[in-house]
Design brief:
391 residues, 57% helix, three-stranded antiparallel beta sheet, mainly alpha
Length: 391
């Protein structure tokens, strides 16, 4: 719904008049600070990727891992899809996202005007969900706690740099004012008739109705009144995720040596194991991230899809909030695949002291990725459209 925003001030929060979603937040945000944090993070990615991440020692023999080595060992062990996803989310996506973000914010800081700023910031923004340094940090903490319970393990300088980049990524997100960046790249100009205008789903620029199908003049994304084939894609992806959710929880997820004995565990058995080791905080985190959040994502997406199909008028604000929560928390379910990716490279000693992925690792990762894509293909405005058609 097009809305005219009042002039913004410091420490201001503006919400949508219909669904109460956040339209603009200026509190604690600064483009200069975001640029400095993003540039620092980009530099720290060099030691985080090149220097040792973890080291384990068993009976005088040691194993050392680097950030990309987990993907390489998974590929060598016959898990190409798992290797590709870990490599893309932990190595490639952070470098591309923060490289583009630093370029755009640096150009704006020095008043550089260029046509590539909009598309570059669009891709940096799209990669926000897929650059999972913060999620990998939680996976590293869980893997470290599990390993330390059985063998000697040390964090390397690459691990220290990775922790710093993960924390910085959270600060970058908090300091970045996306609306201000888009306004600096190309200011908003209200169309002649805002009631029939099309909103760009990426940069939220309003364009005249006849521009549908053309490229947005600010970010270069394709303009559509609603996301194309939103319902069919969302239903197909969600159903596929529901089917994969069953083997993901029934079959073993990984094998880890506990007290020099190879132990295979499912998602819930991994939670129980952490609790038995008196790591209650990590057990709760893993339970929420690996079991509860995937279930809530599937249930939340299902509720939104059924709302459109039934043209429901009830609880539209609540459903919109649930959709935003599903879109926001979905990436945190990648904790368990990252735990596997962290301990596998440093647990290849012999038949008794070894760590590897098991059959549930691929369907579990697929559930996470499919629900993330499903949330992005769903257009929550369809719920409001369907409710209006019922009237």
């Amino acid at each position: 719904m097009p809305q005219q925003l009042p002039p913004t001030h410091a420490a201001q929060l503006t919400r949508c008049a219909r669904c109460a979603g956040t339209l603009e937040r200026t509190n604690g945000r600064s483009l200069s600070l975001a640029f400095a944090l993003s540039a620092t993070l980009l530099l720290l990615l060099i030691p985080a990727n090149l220097m040792p991440l973890l080291r384990t020692d068993v009976l005088g023999v040691s194993r050392t891992s680097r950030l990309a080595s987990s993907a390489w060992i998974m590929l060598y062990d016959g898990w190409p899809w798992l290797a590709a996803i870990v490599f893309l989310f932990i190595v490639v996506a952070p470098i591309v996202r923060f490289g583009l973000l630093t370029l755009v914010l640096g150009a704006l800081e020095f008043d550089v005007k260029a046509d590539w700023l909009g598309p570059a910031f669009r891709w940096a923004d799209k990669l926000q969900s897929w650059a999972m340094l913060d999620v990998f940090l939680l996976g590293l903490a869980v893997a470290y706690a599990r390993l330390a319970d059985s063998i000697a393990v040390r964090l390397g300088p690459g691990g220290v740099a990775l922790i710093a980049t993960a924390i910085l990524s959270l600060f970058v997100r908090a300091a970045l004012d996306k609306a201000a960046v888009w306004e600096r790249i190309a200011p908003d100009a209200p169309p002649a008739d805002p009631r029939t205008a099309i909103e760009c789903t990426t940069c939220e620029l309003l364009a005249p109705a006849e521009a549908e199908g053309a490229s947005c003049r600010r970010c270069g994304d394709r303009l559509h009144r609603r996301k194309p084939q939103s319902m069919s894609r969302t239903i197909a992806l969600t159903l596929a995720a529901v089917l994969l959710y069953i083997p993901a929880n029934l079959y073993p997820l990984a094998t880890l040596p506990i007290h020099y004995k190879p132990t295979t565990y499912t998602v819930l058995e991994g939670v129980i194991e952490l609790a038995q080791a008196n790591l209650w905080d990590l057990a709760l985190l893993v339970f929420c991230a690996s079991f509860l959040i995937p279930f809530l994502k599937l249930a939340g997406l299902g509720w939104c899809v059924v709302s459109v199909l039934r043209r429901s008028r009830s609880h539209l604000v609540a459903k919109t909030k649930v959709y935003r929560m599903v879109e926001e928390i979905g990436r945190w379910s990648m904790v368990d695949p990252f735990v596997i990716g962290t301990f596998v490279p440093v647990m290849t000693y012999n038949a008794f002291i070894t760590g590897r992925a098991e059959p549930a690792a691929v369907p579990f990762t697929a559930v996470v990725v499919l629900t993330m894509i499903s949330a992005k293909t769903f257009d929550p405005r369809l719920m409001w459209d369907a409710a209006e058609r019922r009237d």
